[in-house]
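I'll show a typical protein example:
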Amino acid sequence: MGNDTILKKFIANGLLYAELKELFEKCLIDEGFSSVELRLEESPVKVLLKVVNPHELIGDKKFKITQLQHLVASRLDVPESNVKIIIDKVIEKGLCPVYQANLIREKMLANVPYKRAANLVLRNAKFAGATGCSVTISGKLKGLRACTKKFLEGVVIKSGQPSKDFVKKHITTVVTKQGVLGIQVAIMLPHDPEGIIGPSSLLPDKIVVLNPKSE
């Protein structure tokens, strides 16, 4: 397999992931969609969805899961029986930037001031144990001139490999009377030795002093 074939395969998989993620974000807003994981090499193809309210999907009415399964099968060009959707619950929604960004969006659509909505998200992330959280809202917030407002709680690193491992981001938009506003939420996850709510590895600048061994 040549390099061009491998590159085309990676690009195709990336486009497929982006399309399905956008689909689930639009279809599972009420269920609190968080993330999606595709396992294309398995048979049947497995689609792992993390949502805040899984009971909305796995209750008595499974019509939405069947509908999503049909759409995924059509996009992959495989039989519907060869696609399996697995629903998992988000352990801590305060550490989920997708849910928190959509929360700001819903609050602003309900005419809640953007400062109150942003502070609510910062408080949720702090109570969930996040190391830090930042909220950026841009657009015509007041008047006819567009501006950007930033809100920060704690520490959110911006560069290096640790920022990719510890910081989770999500960007969404909301349509208001003034126009389209952009919302970005970045949450720095805490260190978790078990790797459940955060990375199991420590930050490079963290030094652990071990107790001396007794001879």
About this structure: The CA atoms of residues 163 and 209 lie 24 Å apart. The first strand starts at residue 33 and ends at 39.
